[in-house]
Amino acid sequence: MQKVYYQLVDLYAMPDDEIKKKAHLGMMEYFMKYVHVRDMIKVMGGSFRKL
């Protein structure tokens, strides 16, 4: 049986600039980092301005 390993990523400790460098998963990780923010419209607007 082959062992499967997973790597945990602490998005709260990772700077936003490092998240944005990732081509495919950057946007998903960015929104996962700020999932508990009440005003998601501001988070979305800030993320699109920074891209």
What key attributes describe this structure?
0% strand; 47% helix; elongated; single chain; 3 helices; mainly alpha; 51 residues
Task: Walk me through this protein's architecture.
- The chain has helices at 16-20, 26-33, 40-50.
- The chain has a domain at 16-50.
- 47% of the residues lie in helices and 0% in strands.
- With 51 residues, the chain is mainly α.
- The mean pLDDT is 81.
- It contains three helices and no strands.
- The longest helix has 11 residues, at 40-50.
Question: Summed up, what is this model?
Answer:
This protein is mainly α and 51 residues long.
Which secondary structure elements does this structure contain, and how are they paired or packed?
Layout (H helix, E strand, L loop, with lengths): L15 H5 L5 H8 L6 H11 L1
Q: How many strands appear in the DSSP assignment? A: 0
Shape: elongated
Radius of gyration: 13 Å
How large is the share of residues in beta strands?
Answer: under 5%
Order of helices and strands: HHH
Kindly, what is the distance between the CA atoms of the first and last residues, rounded to a whole number of angstroms?
Answer: 43 Å
- Percent helix, as a range, is 40-55%
Number of helix segments?
3
Mean pLDDT: 81
Instruction: Show unreliable segments.
Output: none
User: Which structural class should the secondary elements be placed in?
Assistant: mainly alpha
The main pleated sheet reads as: none
